[in-house]
């Protein structure tokens, strides 16, 4: 009887752990928490990111062009083309600073009107780096092969809820 009771008790708990592990595996971004320290990293370890990449997201074609690492910086441009028109642009870089990496960007509409204030950038601190992934704050870049990468961005919903978007890119 004890074993039957124990099994019945463990079954819901096991299901909870199973669902939690599936959810955690599907969540590709991690957040930078107050008090964390970014890991040591150099741009040379992510030179695979340099190049011209295209994919689909936000109901259109997305394109990114990354420069090779040089003098502590990798710059990039991004654009979304949807319904036959430019939706928006991003311009930015990953820089080496204080022994780690920082991703900074600015958004612009189709007429190059900035979304952020003149002297403001959107900053993504490095949380973790592995052989094939860069985990910035709510922004992950994943190396699949020399011809394919994924980017995962938590675009949020303004009410504290997570909304992760996957960008699958192929080298052009």
From TrEMBL:
Segments forming domain DUF6265: 47-154
Source species, domain of life: Bacteria
Matching Pfam families: DUF6265 (PF19780)
InterPro entries found in the cross-reference section: DUF6265
Protein name: DUF6265 domain-containing protein
